[in-house]
Write the structure tokens for this entry.
Amino acid sequence: MSLIRAFPGLRPAEGRAADVAAPPYDVMNEAEAREMAVGRPWSFLHISRPEIDLPEGTDPYAPEVYTKAAENLSKMQQEGILVRDAKPSYYVYRLTMGDHQQTGLVAAASVEAYDNDRIKKHEFTRPAKEDDRVRQVDALNAQTGPVFLVYPSAPAVDSMLVQISQNPPDMDVTAAEGVRHEIWLLDDDDKVAELTLEFDQMSALYVADGHHRSAAGSRVTGSRKAANQHHTGDESYNYFLSVIFPHNQMQILDYNRVVKDLNGLDQEAFLSRIEAFFQLQPSDQPVKPGQAAEFGMYLDKQWYRLRLDPTRIPNDDPVAKLDVSLLASNLIEPLLGISDPRRDSRIDFVGGIRGLAGLEQRVDSGEMAVAFSLFPTSMEELMAVADAGEVMPPKSTWFEPKLADGLVSHVLD
């Protein structure tokens, strides 16, 4: 079974991409989704967040939500808004956000490779979110939210993608947040075969974002395989929708922390205890760390730069030496008493896209007592954790730009 394969994508009809494209389903709440869909009857939010077409207060996991998603998808096909390609194809996908640009491939990725850890994970999943994605796929008989995968940069693949993207794109959409999404259809049989072979020679792919979608893909394969007496392994349900980028084009932003209180310490005692493990320097400017093991801290309208004692940085544990782990093990847990950031309501996480002003606002409002800015996790660090079969701490990576939903979907025949 190939690591990836081409498929006949379900896409917006010519001239309809801007009407359809929507942010990923999980980057906004219901109220925001309802507002985004106002005046946009063909927005993919009507499929990815179908509760917006039901009365407010509807349980987003209720059966009628998935039924509404299927109705909306069917309507968009009947009205010619979404059209399925005639033959299996790949799709080159370029994201442009300011000066940053990354070019990857939309493909169907092998569930068998995922189950055998050739497509590597680095996060735990939650059963309720997995269940939701399974129900969505089963209701639609399609995968509409792509899994964000990464491949170790390969010159032959990289150059092919660049070459194809020299042509005018088949779809070109600039989203409300300013991110440009361009897609090129690749249906030349020889080039499709060449790309498939190049990927088959790779040792592994890595899940960057979309762990619940990929886990759901595996579960759907298992259930459909069990129900199909004539299963061959070639069915479309043996693959899941993905967009795969080279690792060296990824942009990972910082994922920062805010904490509600100082765990019973007054400010003077808190600062004094920090100095046991960190070099502590007040700063007249907001602190955006410029290197690993360096942190910013905002407390009582004052920024500080924290540098961890180098002797406290492990060399042989890919998880323990992550900056998110170093801050947790040397400050957040021993001083602030937060040992389980997944469940402790005293800590929250702020994506780097909101900037340092987003941290200041949370503290100055009185909602939080202290904020920490971090140096971003690198793609190499993520891959090292996945290669070791380990799991990243929660909220370790914030990828930007985000993929769009609705530009290419994978129908399960």
